[in-house]
């Protein structure tokens, strides 16, 4: 005889099974940085328009992994300052019988000059805000003259803009004269198949921290433009009957990956988060709806024909499922986009600095 479960045990077992069912989602790319043993909570999206003040949200938008780690911090060097602009995004869902739905988005409107200008202006504002909070920022060139560890780190870094990915593609920008590198266990690097400095930056970072008697700080803001959700596997990891991808155009700052981190001697180092990193991360998307002009279906005739053909082959073969592919071009007004993105990243950065100041 098979095992029989009582009503209560059966309900508990069913609840556990349902808990394993999930969705794979991205806004365009889902949060990928492993923040260590403590998980950053995910809060509801916050929509902002010109003139809105994010400080009214209080501290709910910012999460930190530990307390006390910034105590006594008086100066920092910033070798890692990045604004990541997602320019292509996509997701695929595969159902039972190999049915498949695939969606891809391309951003149209902003130029490389827009992205560089946003990054440079934000860096200047960020440094000014840090100084106003009582934290001295050692200029990178001066710090390199005093720290062999920092020189070693910068020799590992690469010039920006640094563009990675295909179906999911991003351009990483840094201020003029600064380079780019990924930190250990950086999930953004893994998503793009990039191992550049992901295992090597920890040692020279900690060398620089000791040589300069300063915190080593990094900043990343991730600017997305499409919200995509792909249906994943169901109960016990089995494929669902239908392949489904839902999506919409939505300019936003991504949570979790949008963060400030600082290496300090008091921060804890773990196997999941190498380096003594104190992290302040955005908990929910900050959505900027005003800049989106259109989201046009640019699926080619060949792809649309393939949709029908895939279905016909499945029926004729007696197996398989429908193959659906859709491509979209999201056009934003570059002037409004630049205004809203600049305001959002500056305000989120100010909230992070305010939280850091409280911990000094």
What is the general shape? Answer: globular
Average pLDDT taken over every residue: 79
**Low-pLDDT regions:** 1-37, 233-238, 302-320
Task: Indicate the percent of residues in helices.
Answer: 25-40%
Class based on secondary structure composition and strand pairing: alpha+beta
Elements, N to C (H/E): HEEEEEHEHHEEEEHHEEEEEEHEH
Strand content: 25-35%
Our count of helices gives 8
Structure summary, number of beta strands: 17
Distance between the termini: 65 Å
Gyration radius (Cα, Å) is 23 Å
Major pleated sheet: 15 strands, mixed
What does this structure look like?
This protein has helices at about 5-20, 110-130, 140-145, 150-155, 185-190, 200-210, 300-315, 335-360, and strands spanning about 25, 45, 60-65, 75-95, 100-110, 135, 160, 160-165, 170-175, 180, 215-230, 245-255, 260-265, 275-280, 285, 290-295, 325-330. With about 350 residues, the protein is an alpha+beta fold. The chain has a 15-stranded mixed beta sheet that branches. It has a two-stranded antiparallel sheet with strand order 7-10. A hairpin with a 4-residue loop joins β8 and β9. The protein starts with 6 loop residues before the first helix and ends with a helix.
Give the gist of this structure:
This protein is of the alpha+beta class and 360 residues long. It is 31% helix and 30% strand.
